[in-house]
Give the backbone structure.
Amino acid sequence: MAGADADDDALLVLTAVLLTPARFPSVLGDDYVAACGALALEPYEEGYGLVLGQDGDGARWTVVVEDVSLVAVAIAAWDCGMEYDLSPDDRSVVCALPGWPLALAVAAPGVPAPHDPETDGVGPAPLTPPDTGSWGPAQRRLGADEIAERWALWREQIDDAQFVRPGGESAGRAEDGEPGDEDTGADADAEPGASATGQHPGVRRALAEALAYTKAPPPPGRIRSGFASADARILRVDGRGWSMVARTDDIALILLDEVPGEVLPVGRGPALPGLLKALDALAAHPA
């Protein structure tokens, strides 16, 4: 791996992402094990770094490396607007996969435009990003990632009056995390939101599955926790056909495969705080 003046065999690095239980491209799967499986990798606890770039002919490549710390340092430097020459040692390279799993808006200077390498049918098919013109599990997870990264922007679009239930009726499309008259938490048998009036059945299913995670922990990475503030975390939780984004001191937002492009809020109620606390205790936290 080298800079833009390298020969045709060198990788001209454009970006990198982590593939660990606490942080991985959600486009690849609902959890760390599934994400590794999508790349035919063993789900080692230490994880991997994914380095995306082009060769001297402009072909797209994703290079998998074991040096997670080096990739993490590079990402941190880039996030701070600093330059960092990411050049993993060849001995840390696990494999090179054709294509990119993510869409990139940049290209290496001085080489042809990004394109899939010629593999002559040998080896794995080139990785490709999901089609943004359709809706499915990958797009749903990407949408949840976008909300998690810009929580404040999405949160300000939700009117808390949606959660007020004058006369016992629900308002708007917002769902209520209240399980009914009982003040129950994550350890209760009742499902958060199970009796909320007008609640979408997919939301009830998602909340029920999230509650089940607290009793039978899911695969690593199915629940992830990121920094929000000194007293709160941002949770990313995925399941069969649903994704949840929640702030532990606030509400939850749910996306469903069966409701393309819609974000369904879940009111805090008496049960949601306990559920979120229990999920955070199980979550993979970045080092």
